[in-house]
Design goal:
The protein is of the alpha/beta class and about 450 residues long. The protein has 14 helices and 17 strands. It folds into three domains: about 270 residues, Rossmann fold; about 70 residues, OB fold (Dihydrolipoamide Acetyltransferase, E2P) (Beta Barrel); about 70 residues, no CATH class. The strands form four sheets. It has a six-stranded mixed beta sheet with strand order 1-14-13-17-15-16. The longest helix is centred in the last third of the chain and has 21 residues.
Length: about 450
């Protein structure tokens, strides 16, 4: 059975919301939409305080090569443009919107449920449409999608890789999209094949989703050059480099990108968003998120507009359980703790995970046992224990030499460590420090 060749772990899946159909979350009375919601240069606001905006209207435009447009998820009035805290407590510039009860859609947007199958745009027009509609990677990184399709001179794409793995425990938003929007997903794949000018698309789905594999395999018979591949259930199967190896046996070298081995990778959620952008002229203003946890009263998959307060979503699902220990944006392996519940959702908010005190407590830290489990588990072939020791001694150049920047922050090292060492924290710190070193060198 296909999988990646190094490391990996098998955390409990806890897919508690697999059977929860996607529900539309009601519009909030007030919303906060961050000016920039992507990896790269900040966007430039094009509206001002007091302006009335329509649903889908451009709020902030691209102002750099790696950048993305931001659109209004609501009809309403910009009450102010000011700093707001994100879910980690970090302050960012944002639009504060007083939301009207009914949507008034920006001209040209098709918000109907009608399926549009014929792809009329050329490759170049598709990429431009993706750019204008503010599509970013919904697998977590929020990298502007159009940039991936601007293939550098001398490079050539051979495969479109579709990440339908969703290997992170608890998360089921992608799975529900695959179940409920299968035609849109396949049309999105055809759009991206055309944009890339490739004949072959590979869809990776883990074996723990047999119904998705069956329905996608059946649907693929109607399309030329799309292959559905069942993969071994192993975390982090959905990581970009691991998925490429599992599907093509091509290994992305250290410091290189998927295009260097002829591949472009997109999450299945991004694929569906591309369909909406290209075929329906819909900007990325909402996404499906999973509200889940073992003690949550009403676990749900919800279609939520960007800018919705996180605490309102939690209240909608029955509120916080009494024994709540931690609230996480994302999954338990790669997600980050939510410290500010009044913060708004963003384009990449895939999950709100509520964990009990017992479930979220870390092991008591003890001295390293030299067991090597973190090394065996690392899917990138790194030595997390060694990099962590270098980080504790602030030897940043040494962490760089030991390939700290290759860490994908999957958390396998922390998951397997019997000594409870904060390996993932130290690796993240190492990456930040090495990135700072590299910027300083570039400025000399």
């Amino acid at each position: 059975m296909r999988t990646f060749r190094k490391g990996g772990v098998h955390p409990q899946e806890n897919k508690l919301t697999n059977d929860c159909i996607i529900e539309n979350f009601p519009l909030p009375n007030k919303a906060v939409v961050f000016v920039s919601q992507h990896l790269g240069s900040p966007s430039l606001p094009v509206v001002k305080k007091g302006d009335r905006v329509r649903t889908g209207q451009l709020l902030a435009k691209i102002d750099g090569f790696i950048c993305a447009n931001t659109h209004s998820p609501y009809t309403g009035t910009i009450s102010k443009i000011d700093l707001a805290e994100d879910f980690t407590g970090y302050k960012k510039m944002a639009f504060y919107i007083d939301v009207e009860e009914n949507d008034e859609w920006e001209e040209g947007i098709d918000n109907s449920e009608d399926l549009v199958e014929q792809i009329k745009l050329s490759s170049e027009e598709i990429i431009e449409k993706i750019k204008q509609m503010g599509i970013v990677g919904l697998g977590g990184a929020a990298f502007p999608t159009h940039v991936k399709y601007m293939i550098p001179e001398g490079k050539k794409a051979e495969y479109l890789i579709v990440n339908a793995v969703e290997c992170e425990p608890y998360l089921t938003s992608d799975y529900r999209l695959m179940q409920e929007k299968i035609k849109e997903c396949f049309i999105g794949i055809e759009i991206l094949k055309k944009a890339l000018k490739v004949d072959k698309a590979l869809i990776g789905i883990e074996k723990n989703k047999p119904d998705a594999i069956n329905s996608f395999t059946l649907m693929a018979k109607n399309y030329k050059g799309i292959e559905v591949v069942g993969l071994k259930t192993k975390y982090p199967q959905g990581a970009e480099k691991q998925l490429i190896y599992a599907l093509t046996k091509r290994e992305v070298p250290s410091g290189k990108l998927p295009i260097d081995v002829g591949c472009v990778v997109n999450n299945i959620g991004t694929v569906q968003a591309v369909y909406s952008a290209v075929q329906k002229n819909q900007p990325l203003i909402s996404n499906v998120l999973t509200l889940t946890g073992k003690n949550v009263k009403q676990r749900k998959n919800l279609l939520v507009r960007v800018g919705t307060p996180i605490n309102s979503i939690i209240e909608y699902c029955g509120g916080l359980p009494e024994d709540t220990g931690k609230i996480i944006s994302g999954g338990p392996m790669m997600g980050k703790a939510i410290t500010e519940l009044s913060a708004p959702t963003v384009k990449t908010t895939s999950s709100i995970l509520i964990m009990s005190k017992k479930e979220s407590s870390r092991k008591e830290e003890t001295p390293c046992l030299r067991c090597g489990k973190c090394i065996d588990a690392c899917p990138m072939g790194l030595e997390p224990v060694h990099i962590a020791q270098l980080a504790e001694n602030r030897l940043w150049e040494e962490t760089e030499k030991n390939a700290a920047m290759d860490c994908i922050e999957c958390g396998c090292c922390l998951f397997t460590c019997p000594a409870g060492r904060p390996l993932l924290d130290l690796l993240r710190i190492s990456k930040n420090q090495v990135a700072t070193l590299r910027r300083q060198r570039a400025q000399r």
